[in-house]
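Let us work through a complete example step by step.
Step 1: write down the sequence.
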Amino acid sequence: MSAQAIETQTVRDASTPAAETLLDVRGLRGGYGRIEVLRGVDLQVARGEMVALLGSNGAGKTTFNHTLCGLMKPWAGSVRFNGVELGGAHYREVVRAGLIQVPEGRKIFPNLSVMENLELGSFTRARARRAQNLEKVFGIFPRLKERTAQLAGTMSGGEQQMLAIGRGLMAEPELLILDEPSLGLSPLLVEEMFALIGRLRGEGLAILLVEQNVGQALEMADRAYVIENGSMRFSGRPEELLNSDALRRAYLGV
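Step 2: predict the structure and record it as tokens.
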């Protein structure tokens, strides 16, 4: 298949119906200094939907997440969440709206206990329901309940990832962004982590899964986007991506 044919296939619109859309990103541009990283990115997530955002290192995934969550200011474009414009909003306002990110590398507080890390998750949102949400998190992650007094920095990588997700759940997210949740985990823990993500999805939580583990992500996602050099090159159903040899080679390297 020619490059032109690939490009034609990758621009198909896989946006969700407006009535169901929870997150609607249109024409998002941004970067660092004078270096443009995001070049007019469009992405939509519906309520209860799991969407995979795939791309190689340096494709723009982390910059997209940071711009989405208020850690970086967008240069242009729109970020609407629950019908409210959040583009350029302070990250605290983004959290208050229910758009919660579990960042790449976990970013837990290693010198604080497991309990203290979890409690910080509800500092900005859902503080009044902290006790109820703690019980919910402990129901999902029994290991965290067993280690509430343990310093987070002394936990294993898998346990730290559980803590990072638990901390995100403490804020009662309407949309949970999981940035490379399988990074650095053993194959067994990767399976466990994706089983957990499937459980959260089964409970109706909308998830934006940002992953380099292509096979696992596409197996679980309702829809997928592929970002390359700051632009979306594909959006559609996972099977459409996997069934095209040209697309797999061009954008997934498989």
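Step 3: interpret the result. The chain is about 40% helix and 25% strand.
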